[in-house]
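[job 4471] stage=fold_predict status=RUNNING
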Amino acid sequence: MNELLAQEFYGNTVQNYLITVGIIVGGIVVVRIVRNRILKQVKRWAEKTETKFDDYIVKGIEKFGLPVLNIVVLYSSLHYLTFSEKITKIIDNTVGVVITFYLIRMVSAFVRLLLESYVSKQEGGQEKLKQLNSVMLIVNGLIWGLGLLFLFDNLGYNVTTIVAGLGIGGIAIALAAQNILGDLFNYFVIFFDRPFEVGDSINVDGKAGTVEYIGIKTTRVRSLTGEQLVFSNSDLTKSRIHNFKRMDRRRVVLTLGLVYETPHEQLMQVPSIIEQIIKGEGATFDRAHFAKLGTYSLDFEVVYFVESAEYLVYMNLQQQINLKIFKAFADAKIGFAYPTQTVLVSK
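[job 4471] inference complete, writing structure tokens
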């Protein structure tokens, strides 16, 4: 028996091969026990807790930890065998590449979970989650770039030369595509600062419409007349944006011009008449004043608020108030002024 175990094949004894196979089989059994017994128990416990952080940890162990554990078991078992220097280097490099791949994916998944948790807590978070793929495209690019540099450094390559080359190339690309990079960074500004979101009604430099899509370079707005307006993200962040969706109420300024023949007693009654009408329609009355003596009219300035951001509600209420004022003035025989001229003819 000892003679059989001492026999060598390809530079290793039968005993070394059996130890290697035993470690692999034992490791597989241990990994299965961890996955089917321990991990399932931990998962049930995590589902009962209020926080989701432990759920993320369990999912991370299941998705990334167990494959890495299998690789560690296989790598540890191969240490009992003797290989040539070339094969040993190939094994070490292969294990390094596989572990780096899983580490990069784990970091990427962790960053995505953090962003999803941050975005979902914001107002309109469900809509912003749809835009997260564009952000993750950039974040994954950075993570994979750093991960590959780390891998090349471990494989023995001169990373300093690679970084220097990338730096020079990056400067050239940045100069050639500075507008594109500007739009890209402004996309992050829009995503995190949230001056507007998909579905918001906005006005940008006189161009009004509803936001349909927020992209890495451009934002698309459906105008009131039906056509699609395309803005670069840089232009939007530099402009003054009116976001009507975030309006709590609408302020109305109404100017009424009365004829100069209106008696003083009726002028005194005008503010109270207007106040009663506005309050009767459910609007919030602010003020009504005899503001000035116009060229051909006695001007009253009225301010009130419509307690709704809906444009149709605002217009309907304004129409009702205007009709009531017109009727009340007609009943009180208060005349509205219009441009007139008096011509004096000398005999």
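[job 4471] summary: The mean pLDDT is 78.
[job 4471] exit 0
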